Amino acid sequence: MDDMPTLRLPTAAEPARSGLGVEALRRDIVDNLICLQARYPEIATPHDWYMALAYAVRDRMMTRRVATTHTYVARDAKVACYFSAEFLIGPQLGNNLINLGIERNAREALQTLGLDLDALIAIEEEPGLGNGGLGRLAACYLDSLSTLEIPAIGYGIRYEFGIFDQEIRDGWQVEVTDKWLQKGNPWEILRPDVAFYVNFGGRTESGTDNQGRFSVRWIPAYTVKGVACDTPIPGFRVNTCNSLRLWKSEAVESFDLQDFNAGDYYEAVHEKVQSETLSKVLYPNDEPEAGKRLRLAQQYFFVSCSLQDMLRLLALKGEPIERLPDMFTAQMNDTHPSIAVAELMRLLVDERQLAWDEAWDITRRTLAYTNHTLLPEALETWGLPLFQGLLPRLLEIIYEINSRFLDEVRQHYPGDDARLARMSLIDESGAKRVRMAHLATVGSHAVNGVAALHSQLLEETVLRDFAELWPGHFRNVTNGVTPRRFLMLSNPSLASLLDETLGEGWPTDLGKLRGLDKHADDAAFQERWRRVKQANKETLAAQIKTATGIVVDPSALFDIQVKRIHEYKRQHLNALYIVSLYQRLRRDPQLALTPRCFVFGGKAAPGYAMAKLIIRLINGIAEVVNDDPVVNGRLKVVFFPDFNVKNAHFIYPAADLSEQISTAGKEASGTGNMKFMMNGALTIGTLDGANIEIREEVGDENFFLFGLSAAEVERVKREGYRPADFVNANQELHEVLEVIASGHFSRGDREVFCPLVDNLRYSDPFLVMADYASYVARQEDVSTAWRDTRAWTRMSILNTAYSGKFSSDRAIREYCEQIWNIGPVRIALDQRG
Ligand SMILES: *Cc1c(COP(=O)(O)O)cnc(C)c1O
């Protein structure tokens, strides 16, 4: 600890805006309160103090940000650009303090002002710029990129309204507008000078350019301006501070009153409003049809701005266009940014006059694609009329890419028309559609899945033909999560215990957690481990009381499932088990039952009726079970509203049991599973996504496995799955469905849950009925294991001990080595500032 900045003595000489000592921080906070918030201490609100502190922290990042940019330009460093329609970055203040290493000094500085750091941290709004796992992954990767000193830029959309806030009324989800920017965002730096134009609609005209070459001109119907909004992303205890660059849409015309008569003036205002609509709102995923056209427009908008920005930076570095793949790489996070393939071609061919073949070589060497789903309904395709109407030039380019690509396929597989039809970028069965996953695959030099099983299934199913044609293109990079946010920040008492036991290197070398295994049986260490978990459970219990009014017992087994609500994630399987326990208690009130507190959390897409019904069911069960004297507190059911990163901070560390129960083959990786594991939860789970690798790391004896494997799921479906057979064969399951259908959990209403119960009985696309018995049996093993406190604690310790693989640092190193060919660049602070 001796050389830590946190212990530096305050000196009067420290500059107020960059000094890391207590006194410099205190002065900057007070200065900001007066100069930026226009308040004096006696009348300042907590929010004023939050802003003053946030700006003080931001000041310290700016010296690092400037040095970072300066070094990258001077050193000709290759930059990793992470293209993602979502970045679920979570609250920034606490994380930035930790990464800068000034949390303790900030706390002390605030104490001298009579303020509490934790209270100010709790004020920050969640920037909900993502739906769930995919957006959070992008945020974890930014943290690791900066921490590993990799030159990087995150590129995305600055949504004015992020994912909706979830409220629960009468047991139902209600969506409320997310006004995260209402009180201002201290982290954002607007860059009006970094702006690009993006065209939409209209038509194209072909002709010859002044050198006699064929050329195409796009005459758009309208143009939108994208302006850069930057959020600094500091690495952990390094000087690197990269940027998350989000694009905000604006009208192109600065509308000048003199140019318009009254009618035109309102027309001009209308156009301005339309342009600004583009980056207004994040669309929930799993949404059947809503907002299709605007969503494609958003994707093209952010991708075009980002590619234009990369070309600008390339020129700034004094590099010729051919050097683009040597100086930049762009990783496409799912197909949302896959229009980049066609847009980079357009920029190179139409705007820079490169020959097609050269442009294609540059494009493929620059881009790489990460697939995130095998679910057919989630694979993006766009109807041709919509695409043609919005992006006519891009469609022409896609046709040209496709024609050349299909020639290559024909050469490899002469006469195989079925293969040609399968691989085409255009789906011609039925109404024609553009297949974005095919475009992304064809336009990339590397394609990866996000867990071993997922990458394997990707090569065997959705992209099989492509894997056969280009076997060398395919990779696996198993996801990871940042231990800075999900251990240090979320679970400070566990972090202290780890510091004390293992030394302080573990947050950047998570394999060091292995050193815990030799303490797993130590009674004194176990006692401390349990005390940490117990305190975290008390914290969650208090939050549950505040959010829902439900009182839970922190000594019960905390069994937690938090994630987006989706049928494939099977929150209803968990709910059915609770009902079966409840039924057993009603039959035999004296039953010896392991007391459990079931916690659920997660948002359902507003148009996904079945997911919303699952929320209603969980709340219906909670209403009945929590107050039934027969249950007598032995079971508690909680639906924690508005699950987001901010809430995640106190939910993951409080879990004894992590529910990872998706139908095998459906969850690409999962990352929630990793956060639970790091925080010492045991997993009950299927052989799906990264669960498989978690079980491999921790050992089968420390993991509760159940259910069909992915191969078995496919076989059952092939052979004709009849869920009713499973219901008829299992009396307890039959009764569980009956009591739900009887209106017992819906205040006597026998209609509400019909769609859910009928779906399970007669269709059950995610094999809930097939896995039910196996799940219940495993849950019984969990209850038995819980009763042996020492054995359970040992398993809990071992879960944390063997979670090192799941650091996002490991994942980013793999991207750097296997896909990007990028290395670290040290930032010295004396470069500037
Ligand atoms: C980690 C995380 C997720 C992803 O959870 P899964 O269990 O992997 O689906 C979703 N939402 C938030 C807020 C998260 O932090």
From TrEMBL:
Molecular function GO labels: glycogen phosphorylase activity; pyridoxal phosphate binding
Keyword Transferase assigned: yes
InterPro entries for the chain: Glycg_phsphrylas, Glyco_trans_35, Pyridoxal_P_attach_site
Modified residues (N6-(pyridoxal phosphate)lysine): 675
Catalytic reactions of this protein: [(1->4)-alpha-D-glucosyl](n) + phosphate = [(1->4)-alpha-D-glucosyl](n-1) + alpha-D-glucose 1-phosphate
EC number: 2.4.1.1
PANTHER family the UniProt entry points to: GLYCOGEN PHOSPHORYLASE, GLYCOGEN PHOSPHORYLASE, LIVER FORM
The protein, known as: Alpha-1,4 glucan phosphorylase
